[in-house]
Queue: 3 jobs
Job 1
Amino acid sequence: MRNWNRRKSIAVEALPSEHTLRRTLSWWHLIAMGVGAIIGTGIYTLVGIGAGLAGPAVVLSFAIAGAVCACAALCYAEVATAIPASGSAYTYSYAVVGELIAWIVGWSLILEYSLVVSAVAVGWSGYVVGTLSAIGLPLPVALTAGPHAGGLFNLPAVFIVFAVAGVLTMGTRESATLNAALVGVKIVALILFISVALPHFDVAQFKPFMPYGFSPHEIDGKQHGVMAAAAIIFFAFYGFDAISTAAEETKRPDRDLPIGIVGSMVICTAIYVGVAAVAIGAMPFTAYADSPEPLALILRSLGQGKVAVIIGAAAIVALPTVILAFLFGQSRIFFVMARDGLLPKSLAKVSTRTGAPVRMTLGTAAVVSVLAGLAPLDEIAALANAGTLVAFIAVAACMLIMRRRDPDGPRKFSTPLPWLIGPLAIGGCIYLFWSLPGTTKLFFGLWNLLGLALYAWVGRSAAIR
């Protein structure tokens, strides 16, 4: 039987070479990873879904979700520098609270990262299909949509998952450098959207500002309101937590992790506010509420078809940076859980040639590609949010526990006003979780029941131990 209350000792240097990740990343790699993970499907696709749930007040939904993430990011920065090991919230929970809580958090992270990769792959597929149709090369619906949308299988979504997995197997530094270049393309495209759509801005599009109210309530079988949209749009802001999974592969984690986490949040918040406000002001939200490519649709409606093609092409090129960041993080979490003996230890091996966990990366790609091929975007995003919210609550709680245990101890990064920021992060995440659709919370509960059953089985299995 396992000691469910056992806390993990962080001693990365004592690990054998086959279980040790190479330190090859600098602070600019981490900022690029954070920006690449955060700016993606959320702004390219979920701005339409969010507007359909909150109307023009989706701008407020972005602000609320961003504020909660900012509090969580500050907590992450402090805990990540205190525990500079791979595994993100799973590792922090194992070191601070104990094994059982760590398993629950790790199991939730598996849900988060796997579903994020799937959701972004679906969003990428939408832009591929839209762009190809715009230039006279339509693809058959049967191969570009899941059963929920009248198709059979979303083949482009599956393709991009394996393409990115192939890049990751080349090596950490190589994939991070490519990611940084693609992030530049993404930012330029969003600036182009703002500059072209801004002249069409009409403040009248913001009236009525809050047509569906503030609190979540059901309309036609879906939760509407500012907070209902915030609970979905929350998906657009997280991604900085993927940075913390690279702690063991960072050259100077004490300096680089806070710069990467906080810096990427500041950059992305500024871009999000600009893009969301311009999108709402340029066109009635009802016109693109259900579009898988709202930004490109807005531009085409404004007579900017060529710019729309450029934006769509940029999304095709740049959205895979989100897949790269989260597939990277997912493989590292699986890797560390296997290294700790909570998953088969045979999976916790790195390639002697690239220094990357190739076996784990390809295995993760195989799982998430099935979800990408079959599941709808909004349901994926909502369920992924549930796992993320649990991880954020765990990290904020770990920060407060560490403060309580050693209030005067040295800290390489200190969260400002920790006894305000920590509770705000926890309370905000709990409220966002409560605002998720009922079916999402039900599936998340079932997922964790399955996880607890697996944990009990792992504790009795000598083969895995």
Job 2
Amino acid sequence: MNAVAPSPIDIIIFGGAGDLSWRKLLPSLYMAHLHGRLVDNCRIVGVGRNDWNGEQYAAFIDKTSRAHVEASALQEPAWQNFLRRLDFVSLDATAGEGYARLAAACQPGSTKVFYLATAPVLFSQIAENLSRAQLIDGQCRVVLEKPLGHDLPSAQAINEAVARHFQENQIYRIDHYLGKETVQNLMVLRFGNAILEPLWRAPYIKSVQITAAETVGVGTRAGFYDHTGAMRDMVQNHLLQLLCIVAMEAPISLDSDDVRNEKLKVLRSLRKLSLADLQRDTVRGQYTAGVVDGQQVKGYLQEADVPECSDTETFVAIRAQINNARWAGVPFFLRTGKRMQKRHSEIIIEFSDPPFSIFADQPAASHPNRLIITLQPEESVKLQMMAKEPGSGMKMRPVHLNLDLQSAFTERRAEAYERLLIDVIKGRLTHFMRRDELEAAWKWADPILEGWKQLADKPKPYPAGSWGPAASSALVAREDAVWAEAQ
């Protein structure tokens, strides 16, 4: 009996010549191609205003994307075969007449994946035009890139516009942090190990830190970033998604809705911050001139296209609280910033001190147990414990039990975008935000943004190459804690 050939797949990228496409999406799809994760009849169709055909688009990707593929993976025969998958349709996303050409470019009976790597203001028009061209059917999918709105009303407007043409189970709101191997491994660490789950709660956990630090400034994105800021760009999406995975209850299954139901409960349990809370529990910052990686860099206000009196925050630290029985009294410290001392993203679970210690006379005894989950630049999981120093006596010092995932699993680890793109192709929704999740996140973030506006509180300056304003250290010090880099 002959095997049934897999259905053809058309991955249609609106904004196909944009920065995200040639830096991330096409290199990720090439890696999937190289490792046999794309079916033979999978084609990638770039869409944009450029007056190109498929060959010209392939030449553009050949020129721009090569540098973003790991050198050891850039195998010339495979790369050339990948470029043969590419096609291009020239059209104005806001005008309907070009969509007939897009329909003609798709393979008969294909599963269509529409990736909207464009400004969100175009999402509604693209969905409307796809519908008019009869390109939407029951098996197609649409991927929405962030930022998904500027506030709750704009997020709801985007959701409603897209929902007029796509069912919720066809909509993939992408957050590349959820594609990271260590983030996905956190589910297994929590719910697959009896040693951790009983301790994953108050009073056994003293605090949680979630940090996403960048060394880069705003670069060429100042026009976008100055209207967005760190709260909208990082906290409302990336950091809250990490918080949800750390704090959620065990889902009844790995079904996508069961997992996302538990994440939604966390978002709905986040304590809303009053104006008094904002003054006490949040810190806004803006980088000034300094030194990063040995290079002198400009301050935010000196960057191109930044208004000279801008009060946009490039740094945020927040003490968050989850109002439920598991996390009663446990502070969650969220922190993100640009032009920080080093590029570093991690989650630190700080366990409580023993209720009584026979080693209380030793300063080292104040070092708590910590689970350190590093997301970038390298991915790792370490458990910090106390051990006796060699020699006579009982002097202690902290040591790490290193869960060496690189050695334990020698197979290749896919990058976040590659992993998530394959999830879209296979119809797996678990690592994508559902509509009510997105809106619940904005319901928590909007009062913070509005409160800052009411307080007219200018962001605190911090020199580029530092770890942010000194006030962020004071924020955690109130809880008898310090940020990880100060350990």
Job 3
Amino acid sequence: MLLERIYDEDLAQASYLIGCQATGEALVVDPRRDVRQYLELAAHHGMRITTVAETHIHADFLSGTRELAAATGATAYISGEGGADWQYGFEAQRLHEGDTIALGNITITARHTPGHTPEHLSYLVTDGAFTDEPGYYLTGDFVFSGDVGRPDLLDEAAGGQDTRFAGAKDLFASLKNAFLTLPDHVQVYPGHGAGSACGKALGALPSTTVGYERKFAWWAKYLTQDDEQGFIDELLDGQPDAHAYFARMKRQNKQGPALLGELSPLQRLDTTEIAEGLAAGSLAFVDTRSPDEVHRGTVTGALNIPGAKAATYGAWSYDPEAENTPLVLLAPDAEAAEEIRDHLVRVGVDAVAGYTPTLYGLPTTVPARVTPAELESFLTEHQDAVLVDVRNRTEHAEGHVPDSVQLNAGKVLFHPDELPAKDAGPLVTYCQSGVRNAVAAAALRRAGYDVVELEGSYAAWSAWNAQQNTPQTETAGAA
């Protein structure tokens, strides 16, 4: 048996390829939408992808199940559990508790593990060439290394009302009945790693075991003591913000993401053409450089979507349900531009018109910033300015610039009701060190807000404030 993990550092998301070397058949679980890597991996091992499956209706990326099945002719499998409200809207084979998929001499058994979502499936894998007992467990967003999937995303991102309590109860039962009943040696392969917003304490290890989690996971003591309420209380406390785009991912994944097919090569665009498009509003510019480079000068009205995390930051910055303005990417060549496009389509940002390697000939500006030493006088001069902390609410609660309001960088574009009117005065924005802030500030400027970034963000302000021998932070509940 072959088992390979395909990991996306951008979204902290894992897919898996399982192959039977005797028959050359392969299964991919939870593929992302840019499917070339799976095709190349299967070809590298001399295998053909015959089956595609997913664990649940994802919230943080667009599923590639339909895309990969269309590209290979593979049979697609999805969950049939969860009740009427959690049925997929596209044609595929439905799996229920105990159903199996045969892959040569390998057997994959579906286990219904609700909690993170009502329809969630995990997959037990038995390598029939050696044993008739399962040895591997693909847990999706059920069990992570050191954590479990959060049950509050339906409330946070999908419009649910207090579903987190029922989800937490389901998760406790799933751990009790579908995880801890397994032998300690079973290897666990989760759907996410550290950095994902699908849990609050995900470990960075790519895999774990049932025995290790049984002994060391934070939740283990509650299961040992059969303390459901204690488990629920700790699970729900301190979960991070859910990004606004999660709601769109849920809707599109349930319906079935649009098929991309083979993408055309990206063409270099003439800067005269780009400038005309920007002036007419028929193109939008994406500066893919680091914030440090952007702060030395960027295209007026550009989004700042650093290329290494183009999926994450692109989903924060651009809403394809609200507009379809084609994007022009700043990239050194077509290969780099197409790699960035691959990241963007993972979150449904599909409208990429082309790229340019230069800013020459385009209208440019230097983003407005204020240093920590200048902040107090700036706020005195601009009485209508509003300080906006674009970090997570948990970070804000631990300490923040006094009088700032908190609105996560993944939400600012989608919650104008929580911001002042665009003509009310400047926004002074900050995050922890500046990257998230640069992304959020660029999106807000493009949306028409007057934005001034706090240089160095909270880390710089905190260090400067400490030097002044004044209280370093204002914490939640302080007078």
